[in-house]
Specification:
It contains 53 helices and 63 strands. The chain has 1652 residues and is of the alpha/beta class. Helix 43 links the parallel strand 51 and strand 52. The longest helix has 33 residues. The protein is globular and about 125 Å long. The relative contact order is 0.05.
């Protein structure tokens, strides 16, 4: 057989061998292709082999599978393990798709349809005998398939259809030269590409980035076919390189599965170690191992190969950076060696630097030594990839794996420590030599000499010892030392430090009141014993209180004390900047001669206990005082200022018109708790300061009410006592219980009003009852629905149907005159009619109706009831505005306050839940216990929740909705709703016709989060007082001067650079936004450089306004990251490192921000702690009087044995579990044996390590359980003659705690992200992300909140961030995309306000802009002038005068482009000659226009020349990978354009340069060339989205050099169109009319050269 390999990389070696065998054994007249990917409209199809025979095409899938294959439920299993959907069924679908594609492409040329059929060929030892007959017929062993060339075998193996009739009349057979050339033209065309190297959905790059020196394997970078953010390392083995002697599958498995086995062992052991290894995307099993087995590992975006990092970054590392990197290098191997794993091939290409977690990740375990597994030592020199000779190999010495690793680690550590110097000479053995340049001044020489000793026995025995020795050697040079020194220097240089001052000096500066003198001086004399003194004084007529502490000394040798002083000073600073009820600090200082003092104002007031004792309080007063107490403490907690030592003596009560409480004793340097024990939990150390405060408040409230305790308060106090240690979790439940009685009274009044309400309905016809009769309800309700009368005579009448049980009212309502024209009363309805009424019900009426013959008053409650029903209001609104397209006149300029609008939107959002109607109560039960009800959706569309969503089911009950249970999506079908009920009675609430509401937990928590934030702002609990008034331009707020106005000279000096100077408008904007506040608004039209502006603004705030923290948020991840990256870069260039945290999902975050993502910061601390904890605990050892040698030995023991003990503990627990499960199954016995074996292996490993440290005699006395480290520690203490068991115990507890701390850090239980959120200087995230409940944004406070893309945010989204800002900057552009609201939401909210929904078309950003006299940037740097003029004239001129263009002309080569690209702005008229227009509609708003697609292809084809493509490719940058952008308003048109370009053969080289998207995804992006397809072309001039000016502005302003608009001119000519596009069309037309050279209008009909 002749053949062509298109993509050999994607085929396994065994598959390539099979193809070679086919070539030799199949007929020469046949032709084959191998390794193809064919693309059709459904996507791509991978084809291993395609064989063209004399009558058909055989699509052959090759499978290298061994063992037994079976089939269950359409899935194949290999040796009982699921392997996914049946390969035969997949290929059968591919064959059908390929048949359809070839029919479309080739049938005209060939004169017949090609038949394509699927076959699967098994190249391994597996056979098809256990597959079902319908599959096994087309699944063959390799030997069987190779006989297919024999005519008799051919007939037996292929589908039994005779295709010879196709070739009658001399038509060429598929394998004839004539037909083959036609078929080849397709397979060599644009729809076919080579099959790439691929594994588990990851596509490998064309070339390996590392090839083993002996060609044993190649490593490729890979990325996932569906998401390029998911990256991988693909290692492809070539076991043939090991030679014939090693051609054993068992040996190959031993090598290829090494990393998988290490991974499993690590998973049972050290939690930290899991972070130090690459995570397998799919674990290999023995069945997978062939001579070219592939391993695939996940590479996070922050991973870089260590050798690349050493080449590119190492020169710039500081000394502490180098120390940290070496520690990071040694830490993983420290754990591995303890667990009995030697790597044996440590080289920078096997190490990845995780930039986000600042640690090193290990891979490449092919040569590893694993205790308990076969040794690969004989093959190690062949498997080793490190490019040098090891001493062990040079001198042919016995290899000890750990000492071998120590040597290889030292070779890399040398390169890290001494930048640019290496011990490597290719092919030679590395030897220690002193570096030419040594930043460490020789302190590491002895460490390196030992590690690199040519005699293995003289090296460090393991990496754990190597790490501890390195830590000891570099202790004085580490970052911690630097940080401690920094704190010391910061305090020493601060005016807070008063050098030369002593405590007597304080008494002279703040003399005590004369009457206190006799007490103060004796107290000062005794201060060394008492620790502190306190007295009153007076200065400038102010009463002051002085507190002085003794013995507080700033000392570089006491970093712990210095940190406490630093934290105390920060607390003082925080209190001085925040307005809270506590005495104001007048003066404070740290005394150079020892001591610390704070002078604060003296506040009058009665202590709480005295106030309660001296006043007879009424119950209502007690409620007020209790609420005041809770609110006061809550205000301190919100600012992260707990008291921690709260009791009645530390609260001063000031009674007046309003009770006020002041907190005293908040600034206390001592650690001792002085509060009465009654107000502290039994174990105060079991909680933090917040918990102690909560405990004290609960106790004081209990004492306040004592005998007269309200029931809800009593219940809450009892509930709190049941919590752990009796410590309340928060204060809010207590506050709610205080408010409960008041709410219960209100509820009672409301309910009594609603009871017994019956609305009378009277009508005068004879069939109405004479006596009052109730219209019978159906399960307590009436079903209601209405529609307009179909009779033209009564078209103004709304027909309303009210159906009860077996009876109905038909009411003809005249909404215009607000009257009822007729009521018909029908009795005796059938069951079917009742069910139908429930099914089509639009609303439910709960109020009972009574019927009686009589006349109906025109103003009565029945008419009011009908006019208040939503379906009636909807019907009236829809008749008034039948055209659903957005009407710009639907704008209500009512002076509604922002709060009213926000409240209406907030209150109605809950009504957007999906509604389903239950068709019948006849339910089925699913196997999982869910009840399945028949249902229909209110909207008629299928439910569209994500499968991983948790969906809550509610039922509407009067005005409330009651939660019934959870929807099970996996069991729900389009006809049956699967519900798991929360409680038994819930099921009884469902009846036929019930309406259920569905909402995902995600949507619910998001909605509640936004509503809470909005309520806080409305209730004036935000940081900025009266925040809503800054959004109300009908009553403009008075702006305040917040900061001195920066001068223009200062700003120019700070930020002007050549080619990047402030323009006048930017200067004015900068000055105004710094000076006036608290709310500032900046409008940034397209391309005006707002990102650069904000980054400078952020830098200025930190450096020149004393700002401590900023919250930076935006609508999208990209907008936040762009600003944050730019701001951090600018600060860095100015010598300021901006301490940042990025909140959000790592996958969505820009690579430039990954290292400050929450998880990354968490890992950084965890890993740093792991590699340095011996340093941290050794300082405690020193304080406990333990000899340095003892401390060192104990730390070493813990580092060595702890990973083993953790793993041992895991296995023991699992063993207990397995032993408790009594089972005789083989798998159970196998697991038991495996666990016992592994436990014994660990015990042997532990004994081996202990043996190397202690005497053999000790082994006999040891008990191998969790106390082992303790037993050994006692032995070490005896050896070191240390006899203080209590201190030894404390030290061991600290070591254990350090392990727990690492586990907590890893698990994220430490509320780490919340801690980062509250402690970092720049906090970044999306508006949704920072609102995550666990971050407690509402309890946080930021000096500034900056919101980018604020014009796209809804009010409630904005308030999530704004509630926490003392000052706010909103950045956006109300002329671009508005916030997204569902039209139904606007309809509900406007109905609530009784206004037109146009009231909501003005964004909150625009309102704030008008209210605060916002500033606009008026020079754009993106668009060339002709495009800039168009945008300026059509969208900005009326408001800002002119949007200036900085760029006048495009680069010269653009003017050389062919038409239509020779002009800057072009409109191609796509009007169809057909009067009906060219637009088509697939329903549900899916418009498209094939005529515009054809015109677009014509225009693009003129750019497809090599010269044009070369020029466009030169414009590509990382930020802007696509020179051409195609924008449309409609998703369907996007699909049509996408398909057309992928089908066009000439477009192959252009495809990669084009981005196609809808306008809503495009804001903030830009392209050199923009093509805008308008789509709409209809006789009624209906424009849909295209009336929306902001969308048009965004679309047009994305273009930098060329803008091409495709649109039917008759739709947009100004005579019948006053929309934004009408203005655009008119502007271009006017420019063309005056022969402006940069604009042109072309006729699409002549371009297409046809009349269609």
């Amino acid at each position: 057989m002749k053949y062509q390999i298109v993509g050999g990389a994607g085929l396994h070696r065994s598959e390539t061998k099979t193809v070679d065998m086919m070539v030799k054994q199949l007929p020469d007249s046949w032709f084959g292709y191998a390794g193809l990917v064919v693309t059709d409209s459904q996507g791509s199809m991978e084809i291993d082999t395609l064989i063209i025979t004399a009558d058909r095409l055989l699509l052959v899938e090759l499978k290298e599978w061994n063992g037994s294959i079976t089939c269950e439920g359409g899935k194949w299993l290999q040796n009982g393990k699921p392997r996914g959907k049946s390969p035969y069924q997949i290929k059968r679908e591919h064959a059908q798709r390929l048949r359809d594609l070839l029919q479309e492409e080739l049938s005209r040329k060939l004169g017949y349809f090609l038949h394509v059929e699927a076959h699967v060929v098994l190249c391994g030892s597996a056979g098809p005998e256990n597959l079902p007959p319908n599959e096994s017929r087309y699944v063959h062993t390799r030997d069987e398939f190779l006989t297919i060339g024999n005519p008799k075998k051919y007939e037996k193996l292929v589908q039994e259809t005779n295709f010879s009739y196709l070739f009658e009349g001399g038509k060429p057979r598929p394998n004839s030269d004539e037909a083959l050339s036609i078929i080849k033209s397709f397979f060599e065309g644009p729809k076919v590409r080579p099959l790439p190297l691929k594994e588990s959905g990851y596509l490998a790059s064309d070339k390996p980035f590392f090839s083993h020196p002996n060609m044993v394997y190649h490593e490729f970078r890979a990325s996932h076919k569906d998401n390029s953010q998911h990256r991988g390392l693909l290692r492809q083995w070539n076991f043939d390189a090991l030679g014939v002697a090693n051609a054993m599958q068992t040996l190959w498995s031993e090598i290829a599965l090494r990393e998988t086995r290490v991974g499993r062992l690590v998973r049972h052991g050290s939690a930290t170690m899991q972070d130090y290894m690459l995570r397998a995307v799919r674990e290999l099993s023995e069945e997978d191992v062939t001579d070219d087995a592939r391993e695939l590992y996940e590479l996070r975006r922050s991973f870089s190969r260590l050798d690349e990092i050493l080449d590119s970054e190492a020169d710039g590392w500081s000394k502490s950076d180098r120390i940290d990197r070496v520690r990071a290098l040694l830490a993983p191997f420290s754990e591995l060696h303890s667990l009995g794993i030697g790597h044996c091939d440590i080289d920078p290409h096997n190490l990845w630097y995780a930039g986000d977690q600042k640690s090193i990740v290990v891979t490449g375990f092919g040569a590893a030594s694993l205790e308990g597994h076969n040794s690969l030592e004989a093959l190690r020199p062949t498997l080793q990839s490190a490019p040098y000779t090891l001493p062990e190999d040079a001198f042919e010495e016995a290899v000890e794996p750990y000492r071998l690793d120590v040597f290889m680690l030292a070779v890399i550590a040398y390169r890290i420590c001494f930048a640019g110097e290496s011990l490597l000479t290719p092919g030679q053995m590395p030897e220690w030599r002193a570096p030419l340049t040594d930043p460490f001044s020789g302190i590491l020489n002895s460490w390196f000499e030992q590690a690199l000793n040519l005699e293995p026995s003289k090296r460090f025995p393991r990496a754990d010892i190597m790490l501890n020795e390195f830590n000891a050697a570099t202790k004085e040079h580490s970052q911690e030392f630097d940080e401690a020194n920094q704190i010391y220097q910061e305090l020493k240089q601060n005016k807070f430090f008063r050098e030369g001052m002593n405590s007597v000096g304080v008494l002279i500066e703040f003399p005590p009141l004369p009457e206190h003198l006799s007490m103060v001086y004796p107290a000062l004399a005794a201060i060394a014993t008492t620790g502190s003194i306190s007295y009153h004084c007076e200065q400038g007529g102010k009463a002051l209180q002085v507190k002085l502490w003794d013995g507080v000394i700033l000392n570089p040798q006491q970093p712990g004390v210095n940190r406490r002083i630093h934290a105390f000073k920060q607390r003082i600073d925080k209190l001085t900047h925040i307005n809270l009820p506590t005495p104001k600090v007048h003066s404070c200082g740290l005394l150079g001669q020892g001591g610390l003092y704070v002078v604060s104002e003296y506040v009058d007031g009665l202590p709480w206990s005295q106030f309660i004792a001296e006043n007879v309080l009424e119950q209502s007063q007690r409620f007020i005082i209790a609420e005041t107490l809770i609110n006061t403490i809550h205000a301190f907690h919100e600012k992260q200022l707990p008291h921690g030592d709260l009791c009645p003596e530390k609260l001063l009560v000031l009674a007046g018109e309003q009770t006020a409480i002041t907190l005293i004793g908040l600034l206390e340097f001592s650690d001792e708790l002085t509060a009465d024990n009654r107000y502290q939990p039994d174990n105060p150390e079991s909680t933090d300061a917040f918990g102690r405060d909560c405990f004290a408040v609960y106790r004081m409230v209990e004492e306040l009410f004592s005998e007269d305790m309200p029931v809800p308060v009593q219940a809450e106090l009892e509930r709190a006592k049941q919590t752990i240690d009796g410590i309340p979790i928060a204060l809010d439940p207590l506050l709610q219980s205080l408010r409960a009685p008041e709410q219960a009274e209100i509820k009672q009044v409301v309910e009594s009003e609603l009871q017994d309400k019956v609305i009378p309905v009277c009508w005068g016809t004879d069939d109405w009852p004479q006596e009052v009769k109730l219209l019978e309800q159906n399960d307590g309700i009436y079903h209601f629905h209405c529609n307009w009368s179909a009779n033209p005579r009564f078209a103004h009448e709304l027909r309303c149907y009210i159906t009860g049980l077996g009876e109905r009212l038909l009411v003809d309502l005249d909404p215009d005159n607000r009257t009822i024209n007729r009521i018909l009363y029908k009795k005796g309805l059938s069951i079917e009619e009742s069910i139908k009424a429930g099914k089509y019900s639009q609303a439910k009426i709960n109020t009972q109706l009574s019927l009686q013959r009589g006349s109906l008053n025109q103003r009565n409650t029945f008419i009011e009831l009908l006019f208040n029903l939503e379906p009636v209001i909807d019907a009236i609104i829809e008749r008034a505005n039948p055209n659903q397209e957005m009407d710009e006149d639907d704008f209500d300029s009512s002076e509604s306050s922002p709060v009213e609008l926000w409240q209406a939107l907030s209150d109605t959002e809950v009504d957007l839940r999906d509604i389903v109607n239950i068709d019948s109560t006849d339910f089925q039960e699913s196997p999982s216990g869910c009840l399945l009800y028949p249902y229909t959706t209110e909207s008629g569309a299928d439910l569209s929740f994500e499968l991983d969503d948790k969906i809550i089911v509610y039922i509407k009950d009067k005005r409330e909705s009651v939660q019934l249970g959870e929807l099970r999506l996996s069991e729900t079908t389009p006809n049956l709703l699967a519900i798991r009920f929360d409680f038994d009675a819930a099921r009884k609430r469902i009846s036929s016709g019930s309406q259920l509401l569905l909402e995902s937990i995600r949507d619910k928590s998001s909605r509640e989060l936004r509503q809470r934030a909005l309520q806080r702002v409305i209730e004036n609990k935000a940081e900025i007082q009266h925040l809503p008034q800054y959004f109300d331009y009908h009553q403009k707020p008075c702006m305040q001067q917040m900061q001195p106005r920066p001068s223009a000279e200062t700003l120019r000096e700070l930020y002007d650079q050549p080619g990047q100077r402030f323009n006048e408008q930017q200067l004015m904007a900068f000055q105004q936004l710094v000076e006036l506040g608290p709310v500032g608004v900046l409008q940034g039209p397209p391309g005006t450089g707002k990102t650069t502006f904000i980054s400078k603004f952020i830098h200025y705030l930190y450096q020149h306004c004393g700002v401590n923290n900023i919250l930076l948020v935006g609508q999208s991840h990209a907008s936040v990251d762009n600003v944050a990256i730019k701001a951090r870069e600018l600060c860095h260039t100015r010598g300021m490192e901006l301490d940042t945290v990025r909140i959000g999902n790592e996958l969505m975050i820009d690579e430039g921000m990954l290292s400050v993502a929450t998880k990354a910061l968490q890992r950084q601390i965890q890993h740093k702690f792991h590699r340095e904890y011996d340093l941290r605990v050794s300082s405690l050892g020193k304080r406990l009087g333990m000899a340095p040698l003892l401390v060192k030995q104990l730390c070493q023991l813990h580092r060595t044995l702890n990973p083993l003990m953790v793993t041992y503990g895991q296995y023991s627990r699992e063993l207990d579990k397995v032993e408790q499960t009594k089972s005789s199954s083989i798998s159970h016995q196998e697991r038991l044996t495996e666990l016992l074996e592994q436990s014994n292996q660990l015990k042997l490993r532990t004994q081996e390590i202990i043996n190397s440290i202690f005497d053999e005699s000790l082994l006999k006395t040891l008990v191998y359980d969790e106390t082992l480290i303790r037993q050994l520690a006692e032995q070490i203490a005896i050896q070191c003659s240390y006899n203080n068991p209590e201190n030894l115990e404390r030290f061991l507890q600290l070591l254990e705690m350090s392990q727990e701390w690492m586990d907590v850090l890893r698990g994220g239980e430490a509320g780490f992200d919340r801690f980062m959120f509250k402690s970092k200087r720049l906090v970044c995230g999306t508006l949704v992300g920072v609102g995550n409940r666990r971050l407690e944004l509402a309890e946080s406070s930021f000096d500034w909140v900056i919101v980018d893309e604020a014009g796209r945010a809804q009010a409630a989204e904005l308030m999530v961030a704004l509630q926490s800002g003392k000052r706010v900057l909103l950045v956006g552009d109300h002329k671009q995309l508005p916030p997204f609201y569902h039209q139904q939401h606007l309809k509900l909210a406007s109905k609530k306000l009784e206004l037109g929904k146009g009231i909501f078309y003005e964004s909150d950003f625009e309102r704030a802009f008008k209210a605060t006299d916002g500033v606009t940037l008026d020079t754009q740097y993106r668009m060339v002038e002709p495009i800039g003029e168009l945008v300026s004239e059509c969208f900005y001129a009326q408001d800002i005068g002119k949007l200036h263009s900085s760029r006048k002309v495009s680069p010269d080569w653009y003017s050389q482009l062919p038409s239509p690209w020779n002009k800057t702005v072009t409109w191609i008229d796509s009007s169809s000659p057909n009067e009906a227009g060219a637009e088509e509609h697939k329903g549900n708003g899916r418009y498209y226009n094939q005529r515009e697609v054809r015109l677009l292809l014509e225009a693009l084809q003129s750019l497809s020349s090599d010269d044009c493509i070369a020029q466009l490719e030169q414009t590509i940058t990382t930020e802007q990978p696509y020179p051409i952008g195609i924008i449309t308003m409609y998703r369907q048109q996007k699909e049509e354009i996408d398909n057309a370009i992928s089908r066009a053969e000439w477009a192959a080289s252009l495809r990669g340069l084009i981005k196609i998207d809808t306008v809503d995804s495009y804001q903030g992006q830009e392209n050199k060339i923009i093509i805008l397809s308008l789509v709409r072309d209809n006789p009624n001039k209906l424009q849909g989205f295209l009336r929306d000016a902001p969308r048009i502005n965004v679309a047009i302003s994305r273009a930098q050099e060329r803008l091409l608009i495709l649109g039917a001119r008759r739709m947009w000519s100004k005579t019948n169109n006053d929309s934004a596009l009408g203005n655009v069309h008119e502007f271009i037309s006017k420019q063309v009319a005056v022969d402006e050279p940069n604009y042109q209008i072309l006729c699409g009909q002549s371009l297409l050269g046809d009349n269609n």
